[in-house]
Amino acid sequence: MLKLTKKADYGLISLKHIAVFGKERPASTKEMAEAYGIPAPILSKVLQRLVHEGFLLSEQGVNGGYRLARDPSLITALEVIRAIDGPVLLTNCFSGHGECEIWECCNVREPLRKVHERIQQVLESITIADLSEETPPGGGRHARLGGALTVIPG
Q1: What is residue 98's predicted lDDT score, i.e. its pLDDT?
Q2: CA-wise closest residue to 84 among 2, 32, 7, 15
Q3: The CATH number of 2-86+127-134 is which of 1.10.10.10, 3.40.50.300, 1.10.579.10, 3.40.50.150?
Q4: HEC assignment per residue over the chain
Q5: Domain layout of the chain by residue ranges
Q6: Which residue has the higher pLDDT, 149 or 86?
Q7: How confident is the model at residue 150 (pLDDT cuts 50, 70, 90)?
Q8: How far apart are alpha carbons 66 and 64 in whole angstroms?
Q9: Cβ of 105: how many Cβ atoms within 10 Å?
Q10: Which residue, 26, 29, 24, is CA-closest to 11?
Q11: % of the chain surpassing 70 pLDDT
């Protein structure tokens, strides 16, 4: 199972929230932390990272908060995950940091490389706009994405 870190999960959740609810006004850290049960200090660090990486704009002041810096259809899940967690790796074979001890005789490296590439393609094909098209459960109550990522090759 490939699993997102909590920070990557929180980043995707916040970008979706801002895409859906932040059109009229900036979304605050407090608002998102309360809506999704995310610890505010951790969410604040994630949001700062998203500002630094160019996904969000931060607006100061009483009515301040965060807005998307780019169109949600141009922000992919892959680039958000990479910005927060670094490269998405299925195994150490694809890290570029040397070979493992069975590199020469490994009989699954090539099939796993194909799976790795498909995962990258799937994540690159999903945008924040795509995530935002889903209706929140309960009609308006927010739900967390859950952290686990299931990829089914097509």
Answers
A1: 56
A2: 7
A3: 1.10.10.10
A4: CEECCHHHHHHHHHHHHHHHHCCCCCECHHHHHHHHCCCHHHHHHHHHHHHHCCCEEEECCCCCEEEECCCHHHCEHHHHHHHHHCCCCCCHHHCCCCCCCCHHHCCCHHHHHHHHHHHHHHHHHCEHHHHHCCCCCCCCCCCCCCCEECCCCC
A5: 2-86+127-134
A6: 86
A7: very low
A8: 7
A9: 7
A10: 29
A11: 79
Q: The tokens 């490389």 sit on which residue? A: 113
Amino acid (1-letter code) at residue 3: K
pLDDT tens for 109-132 read 788 888 888 989 999 999 999 999
pLDDT, tens digit, for every residue of 56-106?
999 998 888 999 999 999 999 999 999 999 888 777 676 655 567 777 788
What's the maximum distance between 2 C-alpha atoms anywhere in the chain?
Answer: 62
What is the distance between the alpha carbons of residues 58 and 73, in angstroms, rounded to a whole number? 20
**Residue listed under structure tokens 């807005």:** 67
Q: What is the mean pLDDT of the chain?
A: 83
15, 55 contact by CB (below 8 A):
yes
